[in-house]
Design goal:
Elements (H helix, E strand, L loop, with lengths): L1 E10 L27 E6 L3 E7 L8 E11 L1 H7 L12 H7 L29 E4 L13 E4 L14 E4 L1
Antiparallel strand pairs: 1-4, 1-6, 2-3, 3-4, 5-6, 5-7
The chain binds a DNA duplex (12 and 12 nucleotides) through strand 2, strand 3 and helix 2.
Length: 169
Amino acid sequence: MVARIVEVEAYRGSDDPASHAFRGLTTRNAPMFGNPGHAYIYFTYGNHYCLNVTTQAPGTPGAVLFRAVQPVEGISAMRFFRPNVSDSELTNGPGKLTKALAISKSLNEHDMTLRGPLFVTDRGKSNFEIWSSTRVGIRSGLDRLWRFYINGNPYVSKKGGLREQQLLR
DNA sequence: TCGAAGATTCTA
DNA sequence: AGAATCTTCGAA
């Protein structure tokens, strides 16, 4: 399966009250303190896995949450993992996309920079506008516009953040 | 050891 | 608007 990342959120450490790493190292958030480019996957609300990729040097917590992706290849497989929903609802949320792509805790701390079961790659330039807004589903850190998404992309999650602003072409 | 909250989703 | 559902965290 192949999907294009269309919506993400940034999380940091002790300077970010919305981050799992705000209060320091714990069993769950340990990947955030590890090597960059690795998966940080956590289970939440008793139902859903959420996928992040770590971003900082070891010892400094930081990660980017995948909030929505656009199906590119293997759409029938995604439909198998998420039956009874329309194509636009297949991957337009952090819990939805992990289910559609069959991502679970077994891939936690996986190196996403190497070719393997789960990795990120650059498929070249496209024309789109990146906008930012407040992050979704958090109660603190609302002063930061750290949700980033492709403006107008139909696979961006419906429930967006506030105070949107345009960033790049 | 226990209680509360949670980077969500689905249903009524 | 509210339930589902359970892991993780922090306080006691």
